[in-house]
């Protein structure tokens, strides 16, 4: 699974543009005989991330006005139909998977070209030129999710992966697809239910908790009143998966999505496609919360956004492809 840097760079701009504009449901036809079953894990090549095949379906995107912890950008609540099957990363992309891309392609992240990563220093986030995707400010292995990567870095990885395994259409999830995948059929506040007192949160989500507050100096914001045993991002199957078999959809690291930032959900697509018109072109969406997130950010409807060149010690991405 290799390509020369020159081959990679010749195709990067057009490939990344194709990913950005591809409709969420665009794919080559696949016979029922060859199609993987819902719930099946697939791995298209030795170095490819493991994906889980999700069923088609519909759900209410956003939050009801009465939902505890709700923010105004989570409405109006509306029905979205995912009328196609989608394969979604079982985990967030790992540091090892991103390293294979960098080593094979010769890609230089924006960080390597003089930018800084936002890391937590005490109770404040600030830019640090000493930190990057190989050193995000905490200990990690190649099995941990890659962080300190921008939306543009994610697009570059996807363009490269699509060269290695053509015709699969790897991309980021749309915001609607992400919420559908995170909810996994659950209409409540979290994929594990409403859990208003968050008594079950530490079994399912890696957010700010008793462990983090005890070990990270000067944390002033709220956390869940239980201990999940983790301070920073975790690797693999530490927490329970959701009903679709996806891990760390709540907490761990924020995940880039394809959509532009939008101040609310008024006029959002209802077919699962990425919302790349109007909105706020200076921002791209992020979803899921992170290891430092306060409780409301662990809800399935919580919406974030950042500048596409932003990189932080709590921001990574998860990939998907049509089936």
UniProtKB/TrEMBL annotation:
Assigned keywords, A-Z: Signal
Location of the Sulfatase-modifying factor enzyme-like domain: 48-321
Gene3D superfamilies tied to this protein: paralog of FGE (formylglycine-generating enzyme)
Family annotation (Pfam families): FGE-sulfatase
Extent of the signal sequence: 1-26
SUPFAM superfamilies for the chain: C-type lectin-like
Domain of life: Bacteria
Protein name, as recorded: Formylglycine-generating enzyme family protein
